[in-house]
Task: structure prediction
Amino acid sequence: MMEKKYTPEKILIIIALVFFAGIIFYNAFYIKDPSIPTVIYLDKDPEESQYSSDSDNSGSQAADSSLSSNSSNESSAGNTVNGKININSASKDELEKLPGVGDAIAKKIIEYREYNGNFSSIEEIKGVSGIGESKFEKMKNFICV
Result:
């Protein structure tokens, strides 16, 4: 009987064919998950600049009084805990009561929540486009998860 002789070239060709067949098979049955953007860019709302000054305490005082006056009404809905707004369940109107949060930022918070799920900590709200460290410092005493 004649013995089959495999030369190094034949071995490399066989390895390459198996490798490419694996790639083709993988791509034929791989379904890519639709990607959801983690950052949502929206037009800046002029109302957002209402609380942009760090020296302006009247905005946080107004938010303070609106939070305390509405906390008894909203606690029955489950959106406030100890007078703090739950950012995982609050409506747009409730989010707008936070210092530094206008219509546009409230919409961004809700959109972020819809795409990424509930916030696991209050610090996670800084991932919302338009909420930086200074805006978070103004609102952190009024929010909970």
Observations:
- The radius of gyration is 27 Å.
- The longest strand covers residues 84-86.
